[in-house]
Amino acid sequence: MDDLRRVGETTLIATVHDAASTAADQRIAALSATGLRKAYGATVALAQADITLNAGTVHALLGENGAGKSTLVRILTGAAVPDAGEIVLHGQRYAPRNLIQARAQGVATAFQELSLVPNLSVAQNLLLPTLPRGPIGLVSSRRAREAGAAILARHGMERIDPTAEVGLLPLAERQRIEIVRAIENAGRVLILDEPTASLAETEWLFERIRMVTAKGVAVLYISHRLAEVREICGEATVLRNGNSIASVSLEEATDEDIFEMMVGRRLDRTSRHRTSLAQTAGPTRLSVKGLGGHGLSDISFDLRPGEVLGLAALEGQGQRALFRMLAGIEKAERGETAIDGMAANLSSPRRALRIGSGVAYLPEERKTEGVLAGLSAATNVVLPIMSAAAFAAVITPQAELSAARPASGKVEMNARYLSFAIGDLSGGNQQKALVARTLATAAKTLLLHDPTRGVDVGTKQSIYAAIRSFAAEGGAVLFYSSELAEIVQLADRCLVLYGGRISQTFEGEAIAEQALVAAILGHAPSARARA
Amino acid sequence: MIVGIYVVLYALYVYQQPRALSASAIAALFNNSAPLALAAAGQALVVISRGFDLSVAGVISLCNVTLAVYPMAGPGGALISVLICMAIGLLVGAVNGLLVAVLRMQSIAATLATMIICQGIALVILKAPGGTVADWIADEMTGRLWNAIPVSGLVVAIVVAVWLLIRRTNFGMAIYAIGADEQSASLSGMDTTRVRFLTYALAGVVYGLAGFMLSAQTATGNPTAGTPLLMLSFAAVALGGTSLAGGRGGLFASVMGAAVLMLLQKVLFSSGVSSFYTGVFQGAALILAVVLSGVLSRIGEAK
């Protein structure tokens, strides 16, 4: 630990140059923040944070959810004003009061929750807030389109129509547009908050990052995917409980070192456990035959009690439609679905919950499809079992709390958070509450769409544990994950979805990352994988 | 789509009343529709930015009693009168903007308060219906230019034209952006507070014009003159296909929505339907139009 801290100190020593200096010198401090502190009422979000970003380098910000990463980002982007501490940007004091001021000084951010305006076009979004004007001073849609097309072309995204409405594009494309816009505005510092949350591959992103660092821009890279961080970042700052624990060179720190700095304890490596096939033989919980529609065709599989079935796919291969059809949100055009061997008409999520042993669904987008931000975490958890929590049809906060406790315990969610408005909790705790909600339904089949999207390592482990124990008790789980490592770790069996069809199936030890990567990219199944 | 409904309804009207094609009948129709059309235009601005503005009724009443109690003769007086009306609207709109954009009050609560205040002031100015609006205003603003173009139609056309220009500015785009997603708009670098403030202020000015045109039409004062226009302005906006959830729609469609509501009144009247039923038909038309546009847009998306 002490060693690591010393390593951190050496990287913190950096000379301050003026803005005119070139990127040739790789150790120019583009941005250096010291002693940042921010409290919201009694909660200290950031206690003591120091970070130095060098021009032309990629610096990772690591930490569990609630460690203060988002607060630090908010301060750097001008969305929050720190209570103490100061920031120096290219030798000058930097204290933006809002996002516009931050941008004016060359600091731009690609937000995790995306900040694109859905009813405007791609070009308009890229150029906001000021569009090019025509000869008489009015906004020229032709010039906006041309400027937008030029920006898209610069970043290898000619396939996107600059006049397309952003809200109608797939999530992955929206994320790319968000990143492109930040890059265009980042003259000095580019902040990427979970830039790969919706991207299946990183090649495009890393190419863009190399392009901006070559121009001398400092990049702050926030991601939960350590492998990715190692690939692109040179150094990292670890936050824990609002304090910057250390800044380390990633070449010298091992994964275990970093985990230890993040969580303050070494993770015990639970050996990967797969349910044996003998256990899973028997009746099916969920049986799908020839399901089609919404871009999918001929989807057939069985899900048995005690089984964790993974779904691997690139973004936009139909996984969203599959989950939504099984959850009763969208209507299947063809095919049959049976639950516990009985044909099931999945006409609504409410119906799906009540058919046979029940099917509960965890939606993909936490912010828009999952949480009811104004209500307490407990209310969010007990929503599906409201009547059980009620006493003579009256629901008291106490009744909600006690009804929510068992489910929240399963995901190791701190009971203290249950009475908070869920919108005020960190992303990880929100996700825990949503997983707890699906568990609280007492449904025997769970459909989990990317259950650990954008959450930290600790939360991931809690969610994994909850999924495993649910399966061990005879539950059946179908989950999609954008992280293949997660499928390798969790799934007993894995379906690969490609172009709306199940292209391959992997079982047991055949589920390996390399094989899955090839499969999701559409490579023909080898004989080995079929076994 | 709303234009199509209007054409069908108008054909029905002409079929019943062949004289409806005369220039004077057309002018009468425009005069009839103008106040609601303008009220709906202002309302549409606020609705697109995701808000509701109840103060429309208060502003119109206030303008109406002001013109009836302090009539000013001649074209010069009319000019001053219209400026006063727009100033009243601007002031009320600015207060709304301050409450909603700066103090972050919910728009219904804030504009409900300003509406009540305005109506209170209107009652102080004029206790009971009465007074006379200046003759020049009552005559010229309901007349025809060169015996052909209805002045009231021209006023509405100017407002729509100004809007079409505003729509092609950063401010115009920002109204749609904050209506769809205020947080994203702000993270995209827009000054959302300023945009919202200006939206309410601008809407207030248009309400002032609506009050002016209503006074020209009725030629008398009534402290509750604006009240019937309150709910109808929302109906016109919804009928025009503007989403009450914000971010979508337009001013012209709302103006046409208002025109349809007023024309519907005429058609019912000429069909011999008792005026007590007007509300029933207007409400039914609203439901039909909103359902129909939903179905049409779903068909459009399915293509």
Automatic annotation (TrEMBL), chain A:
The protein, known as: Sugar ABC transporter ATP-binding protein
SMART domains per the UniProt record, alphabetical: AAA
ABC transporter domain boundaries: 31-266, 278-524
Organism whose genome encodes this protein: Devosia nanyangense
Xref: CDD domains: ABC_Carb_Monos_I, ABC_Carb_Monos_II
Keyword Cytoplasm: no
Family: Belongs to the ABC transporter superfamily.
ATP-binding recorded as keyword: yes
Tree of life domain: Bacteria
Gene Ontology molecular function terms on file: ATP binding; ATP hydrolysis activity
Keyword terms: ATP-binding, Cell membrane, Membrane, Nucleotide-binding, Repeat, Sugar transport, Translocase, Transport
Coiled-coil ranges from the UniProt annotation: none
